[in-house]
Design brief:
By secondary structure, the chain is α+β, with helices and mostly antiparallel strands. Helix content is 23%, strand content 18%.
Length: 417
């Protein structure tokens, strides 16, 4: 078992409160009294397993502010997403494809009107006193021609062309954003984000090239400015009863919707590679976050990598070996693979030939594309992994209806000392 003495010490309540006060100038929104949390932990029984989850919720809208308006009006899919969360009850969860808005109105509405209300098919009301959200690259105009059509995207062009020239594909800033919900305090001052990290700064970057000429796909002006992360990469430290856990959250681009240059496949591979290099630790001068802090993850840090990685280990259209950069990393414990009966039955119904075990699949893209394993909750070595799962019930069961709100299914892992 690895030892993490610093992370096992109860954090100083005054320091925690100071960190929370810093949220006025960050994108973190924290609720509750951290002093009470520390006080409660002093008399708490032995810690139960920590459940960490990831869930691509498909709670996005093509219109700026559209998700807020839907949540205000009452959204059926959001109720089903909340019901799934109430059933699984993760302690810490990353929600992918949850539109970002700076006032955090969507996150507040989802918490108050959906999670904190018992839903049909769900369980008891669920409260998360702590959350983290921040800007993402999707829908943010680059001012450059990134899709190679000779024009830089602007509001006068078609949606697809405009989205293709954003730093990450999206029709408005914040579309397909990310949201972390937690039962336990988030160390706001220690959060690291890599939203603006340049693709060209990654050693061995797979710079896309025209297959017929071998020339770079991105222009000499665009390539040095091109951001690697299609949304963002976040290292969110959470102070749990088991010590500090670094939630490494991301949502790499799908390796499709491009051309023979495979620019999205290359980007997906390198977005995953960034986390692999981050896990290598050390102090490489090129690995600097948005706050100007350089270096990888500390060697003694515990973590869980979470997110829709858009990469199946053996099937799909991604660059071969993309997700294996994490699955095979010496710091990652990928030995327990989440499974479900629903995935296997759905894959059998579609009938696609698959090399991998279809019971491990997490995404359902219909009869034209089938199912794949795309969503991951990968813990660091040194934990006792007590259980894993995918909330994908068998068709025809009472749980099946709430699980169909998204084309992805929630993945969870239970961790203990």
């Amino acid at each position: 078992m690895l030892r993490f003495p610093a992370s096992r010490l109860p954090f100083h309540a005054g320091a925690a409160l100071a960190a929370l006060l810093m949220t006025a100038c960050t994108q973190v929104n924290v609720h509750g009294d951290p002093k009470a949390w520390v006080r409660d932990q002093a008399d708490a029984p032995a810690a139960a397993p920590l459940r960490v989850a990831t869930y691509n919720t498909s709670l996005y809208d093509d219109a700026d502010g559209g998700l807020v308006r839907r949540l205000e009006a009452g959204d059926g899919n959001a109720r089903k997403i909340a019901a799934v969360l109430q059933r699984v009850r993760p302690d810490v969860v990353l929600l992918n494809e949850f539109d970002y808005d700076a006032p955090q109105r969507a996150a507040e509405l989802f918490q108050r009107d959906y999670l904190e209300v018992a839903q049909d098919g769900g369980g008891a009301a669920l409260s998360y006193p702590y959350r983290y959200l921040a800007p993402v690259n999707t829908g943010v105009p680059s001012g450059l021609d990134l899709d190679g059509d000779g024009l830089a995207g602007d509001a006068q062009r078609g949606d697809r062309a405009r989205g293709n020239d954003a730093w990450g594909y999206g029709l408005h800033p914040g579309q397909y954003g990310m949201l972390v919900l937690s039962r336990y305090p988030i160390d706001a001052a220690a959060v690291r984000t890599f939203q603006t990290f340049k693709w060209s700064a990654l050693p061995g970057a797979r710079q896309p090239r025209h297959p017929d000429t071998g020339k770079p796909w991105y222009s000499a002006a665009a390539w040095p400015q091109m951001r690697l992360s299609s949304k963002s990469h976040w290292d969110v430290p959470v102070r749990t009863p088991l010590g500090v856990v670094h939630l490494l959250a991301a949502h790499p681009t799908p390796p499709v919707f491009d051309g023979p240059e495979d620019r999205n496949g290359a980007r997906n591979h390198d977005e995953i590679k960034l986390w692999a290099r981050y896990l290598d630790g050390g102090a490489p001068a090129w690995l600097c976050d948005d706050q100007g802090r350089c270096g990888g993850l500390a060697e003694d840090a515990r973590f869980v990598i979470v997110g829709d990685m858009n990469a199946d280990p053996v099937d799909g259209d991604g660059v071969p070996g993309s997700i294996k950069q994490l699955l095979d990393h010496p710091r990652v414990d990928a030995s327990r693979v989440p499974r479900s009966e629903g995935a296997a039955e759905r894959a059998k119904f579609y009938g696609f030939a698959r090399k991998g075990d279809t019971a491990e699949h997490t995404g359902d893209f219909g009869p034209k594309a089938g199912t794949l394993r795309l969503d991951y909750a990968l813990p660091s070595r040194g934990w006792s992994v007590r259980g894993t799962g995918v909330f994908w019930p068998k068709p025809g069961t009472a749980d099946a209806e709430i699980s169909e709100a998204s084309d992805h299914h929630l993945v969870w892992v239970d961790l203990a000392d």
